[in-house]
Amino acid sequence: MPFSAKSGVSVSEQEPLLSSSSSLNESDLDASPTNISRHQLIVILSSLFIGIFLSALDGTVVTALLSHIASEFNALAQISWIATGYLVACAAFQPIYGKLSDIFGRRPLLVFCNFVFALGCLICGTSNSVEILILGRVVSGIGAGGLTSIATITMSDIVPLRKRGLFQGIGNVCYGIGASIGGYMGGVLSDSYGWRWAFLVQVPLVMTSALVVIFFLRLPEIPNSLTEASEETLEAAVEAIERDPIKVNSSYKSIYQSDPERTDSLPKPHVIKKNTWARIDFLGCFFLVVTLLELMLAISTGGSIFAWSSLTILTLFSLSAITCAIFVYVELYIAREPVIPVRLLTHRTILNSSLANWLITMSYYSTVYYVPIFFTAILDMSATETGSRLAGTFFGASSGSFAAGYYMKRTGRYYYLGVASSFVFLMGVGVLLTLKQSSSLVVQYLAFILPGTGYSAMITVTLLALIAAVPIEFQAVTTSIQYAFRGIGSSLGVSVSASVFQNTLTRELYRNVPEGENRLHVIKRALESVESVHEFQKNYRIAVEASYQSACGNVFKMAFVLAVFGLIATSLMKEHTLHCTMGRK
In sequence order, what DSSP letters do the residues of 55-95 get, joined into one string? Predict the structure, then answer.
């Protein structure tokens, strides 16, 4: 057990980084749901759940349509960017939304995100090229990142930790409904009217969500973060951080035990409140986005467009390492309010919760985008048939998250549940390794149900573990940490799996397709369009199907390895108290 010579107090991993009793007046924190009527709570949460539902619906609409979109534009090699553009935008903007909502308020940011999301859907629905479609997905991702992260932060504002898991479970039920309807709706609309209508139909739904937020979302004033608390609360929190031996990056300034003299020159709280735009970590966000883009460009084009040993790929990897180092330096020493407070990652629970989200999200997104391609190429399913199997995600996500939330509400514990949920996810990815042309209907549905169950329970557990490890004034910032790692995981998951898929598919096609005058044409068509698999003569079709099966199989193997490491990270978390009141009592 670490010991602080400065304070003479033992610091346990079982306790939060800072003691709430030492940093805040408990009466300040008890401005909680007791001041919100049941009717108000229902209206507030409903407005949040609508945004979560639409964000999930948009995500699975794309997974069901990727094969058909790629075939129309003859752009199978660029298919990952239709998903990656959306996910990169989410990854880049989700962390900053936590800080922006502290500064400008939850409601204005939710309205902004709804309008941006609607604009992105409109661009996608009217696109006539893959480049415009990717642009629309980027715009949608900017909005969707806020719909999910701000909703999660807002729930933490008004719901105690002990009950938080249950409400998160209800939110994930809404997410599951959106995910299941999205896949099926996208398939039906694509088969009946064309894939563009799958995006256009979302625009009025998103605008309805924006109106609900404008007219009904009324949050009480709760000092849930350092930026919203009183000046006395801020100073008390600073004194608590100074007493703590763990190096902590607070949400408005960094204090180091090794350099206490710096505290005299730091800006005062009232000065920070006036200079709101100066508090936004634009520099950190810029280097985060640049690092992600460089990594994904290198991973997506390596081995397919450029050789792995080429100067282009080596330069991209080198630049990503440099910009990542600059990002860390900015967050540690320059940013007044870092977009990702990296010093908090020295805490065991926060670090391993973040790693679990990163690794398991990489694994999840590696599979969720390539199981539908397997169904289309190997099992010759229509978009509607694939979408109906995606509905299994609803049952998994709903049951997993809701059951996890109920368990934590009843017991106040999460550690063994977190390990169990990661194990269930691992078993689900293991089912994917058994997929083949003769797989039964039960196996086809299990390919979505088991990973969905484990993943939804895992993200619920790790979110509460992360929030429980810090005092209440840090919950918006720490929530942003999880969303940052989850966003990076989803982006890299799609990029890495796309690289594995494309490289394996190219290699296997040249190995398997028999010699003949149409050989090169068959290989070219198979690399451009998933649906072309079933257009070839039997001898070519068998070879192409075998190549697709090998490519998907390698993606699933990679996902399994990532899930194993995710399970290890989850098992390294520590148990913290899930309190029954907003004052952490």
Answer: HHHHHHHHHHHHHHHHHHHT-GGGHHHHHHHHHHHHHHHHH
Rounded to whole angstroms, the Cα distance separating 165 from 408 reads 6
Instruction: With a cut of 80, say whether residue 585 has pLDDT above it.
Output: no
Give the span between the Cα atoms of 560 and 295, in whole angstroms.
22
3-state secondary structure 544-556: HHHHHHHHHHHHH
Domains and CATH numbers, the chain: 28-225+275-281+335-512+547-571 (1.20.1250.20)
Longest alpha-carbon distance in the chain: 82
Torsion region of 250: left, alpha or beta (phi above 0 gives left; psi -120 to 50 gives alpha) = beta
**Cβ-defined contacts of 523-529 (< 8 Å, 24+):** 527/76, 527/77, 527/502, 528/70, 528/71, 528/74, 528/75, 528/76, 528/77, 529/70, 529/71, 529/74, 529/76
Our CA angle for 215, 221, 227, nearest 5°, is 115
3 state SS of 145: helix
With helix as H, strand as E and coil as C, how does 405-469 read? HHHHHHHCCCHHHHHHHHHHHHHHHHHHCCCCCCCCHHHHHHHHHHHHHHHHHHHHHHHHHHHHC
Q: Which of the 8 DSSP states describes residue 12?
A: -
Q: What is the pLDDT of residues 83-138, one digit of tens each?
A: 777 877 777 777 777 777 777 778 888 899 999 999 999 999 998 888 899 899 88
Residue 347 near residue 574, CB atoms below 8 Å: no
Q: How many CB atoms lie within 10 A of CB 128?
A: 9
DSSP state of 345: G
Query: Which tokens go with 554?
Result: 């390698």
d(CA 253, CA 332): 10
Q: What is the pLDDT of residues 536-556, one digit of tens each?
A: 888 888 888 889 999 999 999
Is pLDDT larger for residue 234 or for residue 295?
A: 295
Beta bridge partners of 255: 248
